[in-house]
Design a protein that fits this description.
Layout (H helix, E strand, L loop, with lengths): L1 H31 L13 H24 L6 H6 L8 H22 L1 H4 L1 H11 L2 H12 L6 H42 L9
Length: 199
């Protein structure tokens, strides 16, 4: 019975952490294009993004501890720390380990953002976006129920959500680039000297 509880804890916390990481990724993508209204409170984007990231780390921690203690997976501490060192589905577990490291890097650099500078933070942030697809691959390849209809549905919903957010961001970025010359021209015209006013 305890073994079954460990399996449920490991799988359940893994699924929750995947959903949270998907939400973090979606918020990260769409908040950059400033989709929120000026009247909306700040926590809807930046604070919610940060808090969900921290919460996802909590569930990832539960997932790892339960997987280490689960006698079926026999993960062991080294397999949870060293990528591809697991005797149980080493490729898929290894991708999960790398995903965790990327999430940790994201959290740490976000907390130290003022000290490390905007450029370093942004570079790590871009790399950390790789945590999400690695987490999806880990979930699809390491779970014993990876091909169950409900699990495929969850993973498909995560992929669709991130795809929509990424498409929105790319379209918005293109629109911003197209509108930039008009904004610059309008700004230049409004600040031009009134050379003909004395005529």
């Amino acid at each position: 019975m305890n073994d079954q509880l460990l399996w449920f804890a490991s799988r359940g916390s893994g699924i929750v952490s995947l959903l949270l990481l998907t939400a973090v990724t979606v918020l990260g993508l769409i908040s950059i294009v400033r989709w929120q209204r000026p009247t909306w409170p700040r926590f809807v984007t930046a604070d919610l993004h940060s808090n969900l990231a921290l919460l996802s780390v909590v569930f990832v921690g539960v997932h790892i501890v339960a997987a280490i203690l689960d006698p079926f997976a026999k993960l062991g501490i080294s397999a949870a720390v060293i990528p591809f060192d697991s005797s149980y589905r080493p490729l898929w577990v290894g991708l999960g380990v790398i995903s965790v490291y990327l999430v940790i890097a994201l959290i740490v650099t976000s907390l130290l953002r003022e000290r490390i500078g905007q450029r370093t933070w942004r570079a790590v942030h871009w790399v950390a976006y790789g945590a999400w697809p690695l987490a999806v691959l880990h979930s699809a390849g390491s779970g014993s129920d990876a091909f169950a209809a409900w699990m495929v549905t969850i993973e498909a919903a995560c992929i669709v959500a991130v795809t929509i957010a990424l498409t929105w961001r790319l379209v918005a970025a293109r629109n911003i680039r197209n509108e930039l010359p008009l904004v610059v021209a309008a700004t230049t015209a409004s600040h031009a000297p009134f050379a003909d006013t004395d005529r």
